[in-house]
Amino acid sequence: MTPEQRKLAYELITNPPAGSKLAEAKEWGVDLTLLYANLERTPSERARSFASIVHSYNGLRDAAKKSTLSQ
Amino acid sequence: MKELPEIFKILYDASLEFVVIGGAAMHLQGSAYVTKDVDFCYSRTPENIKRLAAVLAPYHPRLRGAPADLPFTFDARAIAQGLNFTLTTDLGDLDFLGEVTGLGFYKEVKAAADTQIIDGIPVLVLSLSGLIKTKKAAGRAKDLYVLPELEGLELLKRKTGVE
Question: In this structure, how many other beta carbons lie within 10 angstroms of the beta carbon of residue B105?
Answer without folding.
Answer: 16
